[in-house]
Amino acid sequence: MTWNSTAAAALTATAAVGMLLAGCASAGVTSAGEPGRRQEVVPHGHVEGAEETAEPQPRLIIADGDTGTAHVLDLTTGKVSAVGGSGSDVGSGIDGALSGDGRFAYLTAPGGTATRVIDGGAWTVDHGDHSHYYRAEAREIGTVAGGRPENAFGDAGVTAVTFTGGSARVLDRAALDRGDIVETTAIGGGGRHGTVVPYGGHLLVPAVGPGGKATGGVEVRARDGGPISGIGEPCPEPRGAAVTRRGAVLGCADGALLVTEEGGAFSGAKIRYPGKTSEGDRVREFAHRPGSTTLAARAGDTGIWLLDVSARKWTLLRTGPAVAVTAAGDGAPVLALTADGVLHAYDPGTGEETATAELLAAPLPGSGDLPTPAIQVDAARAYVNDPAAKAIYEIDYDDDLRRARTFELGFTPASMVETGR
């Protein structure tokens, strides 16, 4: 479908929803009905008050760098709306000030001791062979105790929000869907590094020893925080994480740890860096298109790391330093934004630069006076925030980085995350 749907396409979309509902009827929840009446089947992922749609409903949740107000940009309609109140300590950049789990965004509240929870009002429920898409009103639903959110990962059961101090709060996902904040457990910091990741019905937690010093181990815990087992393969100095169809990935000092689960048993496989890697070039965080098994990360001033999770292989693209990178998917371009305001596309196989686009209104100052832009990517488009121009650019990365749309905001987009994917 195009952005401007025709009447015929709308009829097709309606039929598609009907077929999806029929296909999931056997696994849905049947509501009680009156005798003699056909019972209604509630589809997977349904939340009271939400509307199911035939296509994804992508939205950007954006933090205003001046006032801390959260805004939602509906990428289907182009409409921008403020959500909830304001917070003066949102900070700059996406690194710890704003994180998302696919539906909810977590951003620093005033004072820096709590995190605001914003429901983006758009989400996807993935069933492997098909997906369900929902939309509802965006809203702010409350706060969670903790500092600046560094990462948020969620599944059907819980969302784990990890803060820069190493602590984490695990939130019941069904309660979040209802608009309530219910903690299932809290994990202390104490110098802990690494991210708490829900995976396989459990939690993956970087282990710490006496005095809060990281041991390099990874614990498997129950959703209430109780210990279950450990991963045999270590992950020294964990930094960064991602969840893919092939397993959960944790960044380690010596490469990456791929954690998989089968029949309730967890195992880990190390994907080591090729050759010696300096501390400055190791991965700090991963970026990728949701659902993809190709991950990208900055490699210090050297370039871009690509991790093919399926092949369990690293590739180093020697592109030079970048301020933001991401991978658009298996075989799709690797994107990098450089400090001069230029967006670059690279072939993931050869490392060859395939396209460039002068994007930002001004080069990024070295003093940090402006927030660092981010790149969000989905199956069709990439989005780059331009704090100086108070705009967000929609990029067709499969068409030589063509600028498809420009969203003039009227406020400084300090950081953003995409929901509904």
From TrEMBL:
Residues 1-27 form the signal peptide. The keyword Signal applies. InterPro entries: Quino_amine_DH_bsu (IPR011044). The keyword Signal applies. Keywords: Signal. This is ABC transporter.
